[in-house]
Design a protein that fits this description.
Elements lengths: L1 E9 L2 H31 L7 H6 L1 H7 L9 H24 L16 E4 L6 E3 L9 E4 L3 E6 L7 E10 L2 E9 L12 E6 L3 E5 L4 E3 L3 H4 L1 H14 L9 H35 L2 E5 L3 H4 L6 E2 L7 E2 L3 H14 L1 H15 L2 E5 L24 E3 L6 E3 H19 L3
Parallel strand pairs: 8-11, 11-14
Antiparallel strand pairs: 1-5, 1-7, 2-6, 3-4, 4-5, 6-7, 8-9, 9-10, 12-13, 15-16
Helix pairs in contact: 1-4, 6-7, 7-10
Length: 404
């Protein structure tokens, strides 16, 4: 199996400047390749430029500009071109499937933060000084950089990436390692219902509190964004250091929320995987759930619109995004696979409206957000637990219908 490791690295001021230059030059290469594809399609009778053609030009580009492009790893530049090619493949796939196309865009230096090295030893070297008690990673034209390695790396290192997040630098490794031994069986199965009031509710009646990380820093974030707006009213070339500090403050708050959300997701998923052999959850289409409601034109007033509940929907969308359901479910699936547990996603329709006792389904079964009261048999329970029970039953049916 493939596993990723992320470690903080501590470059010197000179190494940090070299890493910044490496990102800038790879960003320039990516933007130049994008411009070539645009020009070829627009002006040369809709000709498509492929990754193979652009990769073949790298030798000439490196010889023409040895100061900026020639000093970096050839394979890392190929990886940058491959990323652009994947972006175009995804663009054409979205067009065929009828989704919003999202044409690949030019990247500013601040929006290009990662350089990948497809193979350890080609332009980079992990643990480049094995006899040194301090772990170091080496990048071509940068040197040996100290690594804050907080846990051992298991398996053979396949790829190495360097990433910038604000003022910090990280190295990301992917390793190939054998499948770990599965956890001992517990004999327990569980269904989970994702929510806003509670992050999740289990079929056993347990609730996990929704931490609402973004809401807790909303006031600080609003104040920081006002400073960005105030300092950013002048022309870009005349903006002060205060503007840059304000921008970094906003980015730092967002990074903190992301780290807190990931930490909560990892801990919650690990607890579920350790306790249960089988986990069923709703197959949530989060992208569809957070769509903005369509405007409603007013037929009696040309150019006017009727209320469409966009304000209330915006608040719900923020709560769904803050909960981080998608991140949690991705982490849960990965942890379950490495622990030998089974995770099944089921159709979420009517899971909170169907009575677990008599099977009757009606909107009236859920008079409030928390209360479930069956209008047919009178069964009463917490609405989220009812949803979790129905999710578990649907998951067990799917498992029995499709045995491994």
């Amino acid at each position: 199996m493939i596993r990723a490791y992320k470690f903080l690295i501590r470059p010197t001021s000179g190494q940090a400047a070299a890493l910044t230059a490496m990102l800038a030059d790879h960003c320039s290469l990516c933007n130049g390749a994008l411009q070539e594809r645009r020009d070829a399609y627009r002006h040369v009778s809709k000709t498509s430029v492929t990754y193979g053609q652009q990769s073949a030009q790298l030798k000439e580009i490196r010889a023409f500009d040895p100061e900026r492009q020639g000093r970096w790893s050839f394979s890392s530049q190929q990886a940058t071109l491959r990323r652009l090619d994947k972006a175009f493949q995804a663009f054409f796939h979205r067009i065929k499937s009828g989704d919003a196309p999202g044409y690949p865009r030019f990247r500013g230096v601040s929006w290009f933060g990662t350089v990948e090295f497809p193979r350890d030893g080609d332009g980079c070297r992990w643990d480049s000084t094995p006899h040194d008690p301090v772990t170091r990673v080496r990048f071509r034209s940068v040197g040996h950089i100290k690594v804050n390695q907080h846990r051992p790396v298991v398996g053979k290192v396949k790829t190495v990436s360097v990433k910038r997040e604000g003022k910090r630098w990280y190295v990301i490794l992917t390793t190939e390692q054998p499948q770990p031994e599965p956890l001992p069986e517990t004999g327990s199965v569980v269904g989970i219902d994702m929510g806003i009031a509670s992050f999740l509710t289990t079929s056993h009646g347990g609730h996990v509190e929704n931490p609402r990380h973004a809401r807790k820093v909303a006031a600080k974030l609003e104040a920081a964004q006002r400073k960005v707006s105030r300092f950013g009213r002048v022309r870009r070339d005349k903006r002060s250091a205060n503007h840059q500090r304000a921008v970094q403050r906003v980015a730092g708050l967002y990074r903190k929320v992301r780290r807190q959300r990931l930490d909560h997701a990892h801990k919650t998923a690990l607890d579920l995987v350790r306790r249960h052999d089988f986990i069923a959850h709703e197959d949530l289409k989060i992208r569809n759930m957070i769509k903005t409601p369509a405007p409603k034109p007013d037929p009696e007033q040309p150019g006017g619109f009727l209320p469409n509940g966009a304000g209330a929907k915006a608040g719900l969308n923020r709560s769904i995004t803050d909960a981080g359901w998608g991140v949690f479910l991705t982490i849960l699936t990965a942890k379950a696979a490495s622990a030998g547990r089974e995770v099944i996603a089921v159709d979420p329709r009517n899971t909170s409206l169907q009575c677990p006792e008599c099977g009757h389904t009606a909107k009236g079964n859920r008079p409030t957000q928390e209360k479930f009261h069956c209008v047919s048999c009178g069964h009463q329970a917490h609405a989220d637990r009812v949803g979790a029970l129905n999710v578990l039953r649907a998951g067990l049916v799917r498992r029995d219908a499709n045995p491994a």
